[in-house]
Amino acid sequence: MLTLSSISLNFGGLQVLQDVNLSVPEHGIFGLIGPNGAGKTTVFNLVTGLLTPGPGSIEFMGRRIDRMLPHRITRSGIARTFQNIRIFKEMTLIDNVLVALGGRPSYGVATVLLQWRNYRVAEGKDREVARGLLSKVGLADKSEQRAARLSYGEQRRLEIARALATGPKLLLLDEPAAGMNAVEKQQLIDEIVKLNAGGLTIFIIEHDMSVIMGLCHEITVLNFGRVIARGTPAQIRTNPEVIEAYLGKDEHSPSRPEGVSP
Amino acid sequence: MLAQQIVNAISLGGVYALFALGFTLIFGVLNVVNLAHGAVFMIGAYAALKAVVVLQLPLPVAILVAMLVTGAVGWLLEKFIFAPLRARQAPHLAPMIATIGVAITVTSLIEGTFGSENLRFPAEVLPAEILSMGGGAQITWLELEIIVLAFALMAILLWGLRKTGAGRALRGLAESPKAAALMGVNVEAFFRVTSILAALLGGAAGVLIALYANAVFPHMGQPMLHKGIAVVILGGMGDIRGALLGGFFLGFAEVLSVAYIGSNMRDAIAFGLLFIVLLLRPQGLFGHVAQRRA
Amino acid sequence: MEWLDSFWATYNTLVLSIGTNVLLALSIYLTLATGLLTVANAAFMGIGAYTAGLLTTQLGMPLIVALILGSLLPAVVALAIGRPTLRLSGVYLAMATLAFGEVVRILILNAEGLTGGALGLNGIPQLTQWFDVALAVVLTLVVLLRLARSRIGRTMAAICQDEIATEIMGLNVRAYKLFVFVSGGALAGLAGGLNAHFTFFISPNEYGFERAVDILAMGVLGGTGSPWGAVIGGLLITLLPELLRGLGHYRPLINGIILILIILYSPKGIWNLFRPVSESTRLPAAP
Question: CB distance C152–A109 less than 8 Å?
């Protein structure tokens, strides 16, 4: 579905990504992990068009998207959430989602100005859809509240609702479990599984190994801008290079609490 | 007459650079676009003029007085505008708009107090002797003094920034206030010093231009401010070397355009350049896309 | 109705000015509400004023035609410079529009053959009636109120708060910015045309920095919450110098103080205008 081919990116002399190849299959849940600064969010930024790669290309459903404007990429079916949540804090929850629905307008400027009643009807429909999305993430009862008043976990859920509003086929989640407690993490996992079952392909960056290992069908590992491993969770878990990348030599594996002595 | 043009360009460019230095200092260290810098410039001119006319002070002393006055204004700006806004974590553009308010207010007050006509320095105060230099160029004592003073001030500033501990602290502060604070730099004090310093330079530039053109009027700060902006954009916002080079560049561009195109569009040169640079290379000819870390 | 006649005789310029200033305030409301600090509207007003004024004096066109063309030309200019200029953000955008305004003023000043240069344009027929201004204001308000409540207004507010997030949600931020910039320019041009035809004399300095700050003060005072804010801003900025007896010519002073006070002490509503960090849509690559 999504393919990155030989992607490299250099910024101010720093080689942020080097010859990255990865492929997200349709309908799967695909994970991207790596130590801090490995370049994971950069990959997301490239896919969503906020950055332009140097050499290399990015293809989504058969079309090249690496030179497309961000809003076009979104409209072609990719949505994302951000590592540091970027909801509109001053707006109500429902307005947040409505903004996202504005990307697939059901009415234009002319309608707003000249056909007030039709506009009201269309806006009413949009509100229905927005409310539906909010209830999907369990926030329907707070729809008229200002987003700033939400708890951290709720804000993350709002971000997901907003991302879903654009009608994506591929959803990019950037560290969605950050700052969540165990209960919230479980809810998140259930939610992601449900979305995936409904036909949405998921591409997730995460630091929490329990979330990643439990969810993903396939994982790619990034370190210092290069792909160092690729495979199923079981393969990644025991991959010595991955272990070394995270913890250095002669240390515990990332997924075994009791640790492994060499 | 090229030699003459070059002399003119150097004196004009020197003053532009002096003004731009103050402007870019405030941006580089306080991260504020100080649109009141033109008003400070104007106050410097008035202060010097009144010192000469009313207080009967000799010109060199009057220049010092002017710098003291504008330095005080710089202190006031930092204390009552920049510091409170910083404390409130005001958004990025707020100080800039506040300085617009200050500029307008101050200009209006000066106009109300001293009238809007063009005031002149008494003739006996201005040294008018003309020196002849090689190549058909002539320079008056006044122009020479202006050049010397402008260069002297810039040299002192640059020496201070590079060679003194305080200067190093200031440069570190410009890059990262948080890091500087961690290293024991008294950030607030340095902000105040910077604002005072920048105002000093702006005021000095004001006096020099007032002498150069022998004209003091309330709105003189405004075209200067625009040129200062052009210079700083050209040279890169916050870049000291850029302000210097940009100032001379503009000085030369203006003098040459007046000589060979005509003086009507002289002011448009600065803005035209500014516009083009902003569109093609916003970080200026010498600047870099500075990412302010912590 | 004699008191009305004498009231009008004394205050007609003031009332008409309130109207055109409200239009100007609405013109900057559009860009401010989208998070753009542009100070070019004074220049657009000037372009509109001169265009309309020349059309009526030189070509004898009826007011309505002059006004329409006087709004169209600034809009075209806004479109031309908008595309490259709006890529800038924050202070750079402000400075670029400031520079643009000055360039326009200098061009008008120097095009003596056409505009009369520093001597200005004289003898513009006093064609503007109160109902022209009233109609313009009412129509504009209705349009903007509707826009503000629709997804367009929502998107403007979203762009103001977080441009990148808005773009990621599939909205063409660049197009929205251009839309508000051009519309604002057209509105300012309309105000200029109307204004020129009751002050009957215009000069380049009318549309320079002082006017730009005037408009900015109206916008900042009114806030970006709703077009009504602009109405209040325009009203107050026009009336305040008059109400404070004899301070009519201290208008810039008042504007300056208002700006300082609002920035230092304003309620949160106006803060939304300026987001903490300005970023353009295309980030410089960062790890």
Answer: yes
